[in-house]
Design goal:
single chain, 18% strand, 40% helix, alpha/beta, 262 residues
Length: 262
C-alpha cells in the first residue's frame, strides 16, 4: 500500500498496485473502499492483464476523511486521482469506476482526456445529482448519517448483522468501516453536484463503456443517455440488477470490460 498527500489540502490518499501491463485505475462507490474490487472478484482477472491501481477515494478506506463538504467537490476528487496517477508515473491510464467512482472517472475523461485511454462507468451518471443520493440510499440519509452513524445507515438498507450473502456481508463491512461524519459531508457534496454539460459529453472522444442495472433508476436512464451523447461510447444493460447489485456477480461485467480494455 502506498500513501501520498493530496495536492489540494494534504489529505492522505492510500492506494495499492497489482499486476503488470497498461495502467488501470479502479474507483469504488460511496461509503465503500478499494477492498470491494478484490472482495467481489474483479482484481485477479483485471490484474492478469493490467497494472491495477486500486484507490481509496478520500473519506473512504485508509485515506483521510475530512468532515467538510467542500473537501469532496468534483474538482478535488479529480485532483486526487491525477495525483495518484502521477505518483505511479501513469501519464495515461484506463479508468473504471462504480457510482461515485464512475463520476470521478467521467470527470477525468471530460476535463483531462489526454490522461484517459478508456473509460468504464458502472452505475454511473452525468446528470445533476440533486435528490439522487436519497434515491440511491434512502430518504433523509444525510441527516441519518450525521445523527445516528453507520449502524443505522446499514439497518435502513436491510444490512443488519443478520445478513449472510457474500454481497451483503462485503457491503456491510465496508459501510461499518466508514467515518459517518465524512460520509455525511461526501453525500452533501454529491447532492450539490451539477450535471456534466451535454456539449462536454459530445466533445469527449475517450472510448467509453457504460453499464447499469435495468432496475437501477435513474442511473440506467442516465447511463444510456450519456452513452448516446458521447461519440465513441456504448451502453450495456445489466438485466435485473439494482444500484447496490451493480457489481455482483462480476462475470457479466467482466465479459464486456476485459475485451473493451484490450
Amino acid at each position: 500500500m502506498t500513501v501520498i498527500p493530496s495536492p489540494v489540502d494534504g489529505t492522505t490518499l492510500r492506494y495499492d498496485v497489482s499486476g503488470e501491463g497498461p495502467p488501470l485505475a479502479l474507483l469504488h462507490g460511496s461509503v465503500l473502499s478499494r477492498a470491494i474490487w478484490r472482495g467481489l472478484g474483479y482484481l485477479e482477472p483485471l490484474a492478469a492483464q493490467h497494472r491495477v491501481i486500486r484507490v481509496d477515494i478520500r473519506g473512504h478506506g485508509g485515506s483521510g476523511a475530512p468532515h467538510d463538504p467542500a473537501a469532496y467537490t468534483p474538482e478535488v476528487l479529480l485532483a486526487d486521482l491525477l495525483a495518484v496517477l502521477d505518483a505511479e508515473g501513469a501519464s495515461r491510464a484506463a479508468l473504471m469506476g462504480y457510482s461515485l467512482g464512475a463520476r470521478i472517472a467521467l470527470t477525468a475523461a471530460v476535463e483531462e482526456p489526454a490522461r484517459v485511454t478508456r473509460l468504464v462507468c458502472l452505475g454511473g451518471s452525468a446528470a445533476r445529482q440533486r435528490g439522487q443520493v436519497e434515491s440511491v440510499f434512502f430518504p433523509g440519509v444525510i441527516d441519518a448519517l450525521r445523527e445516528k452513524g453507520m449502524e443505522a445507515f446499514c439497518a435502513a438498507q436491510g444490512l443488519g448483522p443478520e445478513v449472510t450473502s457474500r454481497r451483503a456481508r462485503s457491503t456491510r463491512a465496508a459501510f461499518l468501516a466508514a467515518d459517518h461524519h465524512a460520509m455525511a459531508a461526501l453525500l452533501a457534496a454529491t447532492d450539490a453536484t451539477e450535471a456534466v454539460p451535454d456539449a462536454d459529453l459530445e466533445a469527449c472522444t475517450v472510448p467509453a463503456l457504460w453499464m447499469a442495472g435495468t432496475e437501477d433508476h435513474p442511473r440506467v436512464e442516465d447511463s444510456r443517455r450519456a452513452a448516446s451523447l458521447m461519440p465513441d461510447a456504448d451502453f450495456v444493460p445489466l438485466p435485473g440488477r439494482d444500484h447496490g447489485g451493480t457489481l455482483f456477480p462480476p462475470e457479466e461485467i467482466l465479459e464486456q470490460v476485459l475485451p473493451f480494455l484490450r
